Each structure stands twice: as C-alpha cells, then as structure tokens.
UniProtKB/TrEMBL annotation:
Stored InterPro entries: Arsenate_reductase, Arsenate_reductase-like, Thioredoxin-like_sf
Lineage: Bacteria, Pseudomonadati, Bacteroidota, Cytophagia, Cytophagales
Tagged with keyword Transcription: no
GO-annotated molecular function: arsenate reductase (glutaredoxin) activity
PANTHER family per the UniProt record, alphabetical: ARSENATE REDUCTASE (PTHR30041:SF4)
The protein's name in its UniProt record: Arsenate reductase (Glutaredoxin)
Record keywords, A-Z: Oxidoreductase
EC number from the UniProt entry: 1.20.4.1
Length: 111
C-alpha cells in the first residue's frame, strides 16, 4: 500500500497521484490540509526522508514569508510550525515500505 499526503489543489500533487494510479498502485490518499499530521507523524516523515525540518518547508507560502522568513528557528520550532500550518509542508509526500519521497518532480514517486 502506498500512502500519499495530497493537496488536490496542487498540480504536482495531482500529477504524482495520477502516476501512481496509472501504475496500478493501491493508494491511500490523505488530504493533509483537512487531516493535518501530528508532530510525531511529521518527525517520522522527516526521518524517512532523511532531511532537516527546514527542507520540508514551502518557503514560497505567504504563511512562511509573513511569520518565519529571516528568522532562525530550531528544528523543533519548524516542526511545530508545520503542525500549526500544514500548508507549509512540501507536497506531495509518498510513503511506501517505510520510505518516503517528495514528488517534486512527480516522476520521483516512481523511484
């Protein structure tokens, strides 16, 4: 089973989901803006991705620019920001067999 943290308004997220469907994968879709991940889930994803929290932040989002740009935050504070504002989380995230990948570009989800 493949899980995808999906935002249907995001073209890259839609493209990634379509690639998975075309490949015949069994998919569990989580619209993470409606069903926000917990702190523990974000920490688990970061571990699977093997990246720092800042690398999972969408720096082009207005929320980031207004509240966090130019500030030096700890990893814990970045994680807390993603819990409070899930729109900051880079998307889509595809999870399979305890491994995760960010679908940017969407072809990465097939790796």
């Amino acid at each position: 089973m493949i899980k995808i943290w999906h935002n249907p308004r995001c073209s890259k997220s839609r493209e990634s989901l379509n690639l998975l469907k075309e490949n015949g994968e069994e998919i569990e879709v989580r619209e993470y803006l409606k069903d926000a991940p917990s702190k523990a889930e974000i920490e688990e994803i970061l571990s699977m991705l093997n990246i720092a929290p800042l690398a999972l932040i969408r720096k082009g989002e207005a929320i980031y620019k207004e509240n966090f740009k130019g500030k030096e935050l700890t990893d814990e504070e970045y994680i807390d920001a993603m819990v409070e504002y899930p729109k900051l989380i880079e998307r889509p995230i595809v999870i399979k067999d305890n491994k995760a990948v960010i679908g940017r570009p969407p072809s990465f989800v097939m790796s």
